[in-house]
Structures are given as structure tokens and as C-alpha cells.
């Protein structure tokens, strides 16, 4: 059974790990880890998919990582080059921030908050059709 990007499977009564949906189901990758090592991940550790395919639950594709290692691996900060929508200057932002702001509907990026304010004022003048003192 799918649960987001992961697979839930029915577990045997002897499974000591965390269960979901009326206690009958568990994440397949954790079950596979337990079946092959006879241990559950200790607190602060996660079972990681080496090839990033969350439904590839072969034991060879699984490894134990600390939560910190796992988070660091998946949160690589990748810089993205953008152009300031006001002055045209090249600026660098983190890919995650650009992705998040773009999903929120933001189309313009700025090198400073003052350029953001000036650009918004310029857009307002174009819409309203008059020039105020700024």
C-alpha cells in the first residue's frame, strides 16, 4: 500500500517496530532492515535508500544513517544565479528558497529590500497611471 513516496506492508505479529493503520502495517524499508539485521534503527537513526528510490526496498539499497547525516545529505544548499528585477545585478540565492518562493507565486527577485520596494512602487505607478512623490 502506498503512503506518500513510501510503501506500507502488513507486518508479522512478531515485528517489534512502529506500526500504522490499526497496528497492521509498517514501512517496508524498516521491515526489510529488521528482517536482515534482526535490529530496528536505534533512536536518532534512519534507514536510508542509497539510490534515492523510496520504493526500492532491497536490503542492498538500504543503509543506516544518523538523522543528522541524513538531513545534511538531503538538504544540500545549491546556489542559483538570478537577476535583480529592479537593477539587473546578478544575485545568488539558495535553490530551496527560489523553489519555495516560486511555488508561492513570486516571480521577481531583488538584490536588496530597497530595490524590492522601488520596483513595487514602479509597478504601482504603471498600473495607476500617475507618478507620486517617492
Tell me about this structure.
The chain has helices at residues 28-37, 67-74, 95-103, 113-128, and strands at 2-3, 6-10, 25-27, 45-49, 62-66, 79-83, 90-94. The protein is α+β, with helices and mostly antiparallel strands and 134 residues long. The protein has 2 domains: 2-74, no CATH class; 83-128, no CATH class. The protein has a 3-stranded antiparallel sheet. Strands 4-5 form a two-stranded antiparallel sheet.
Percent in strands: 15-25%
Order of helices and strands: EEEHEEHEEHH
Number of helices: 4
Radius of gyration: 24 Å
Q: Could you say how many structural domains there are in total? A: 2
Overall number of strands: 7
**Mean pLDDT level:** 91
The major β-sheet equals: 3 strands, antiparallel
Q: N-to-C terminal Cα separation, in Å? A: 60 Å
Write the layout of secondary structure elements.
Layout lengths: L1 E2 L2 E5 L14 E3 H10 L7 E5 L12 E5 H8 L4 E5 L6 E5 H9 L9 H16 L6
Briefly summarize what is shown.
The protein is built from four helices and seven strands; from the N terminus they run E-E-E-H-E-E-H-E-E-H-H. It has helices at residues 28-37, 67-74, 95-103, 113-128; strands spanning 2-3, 6-10, 25-27, 45-49, 62-66, 79-83, 90-94. Strand 6 and strand 7 (90-94) form a beta hairpin.
Keywords:
two-stranded antiparallel ribbon; about 130 residues; alpha+beta
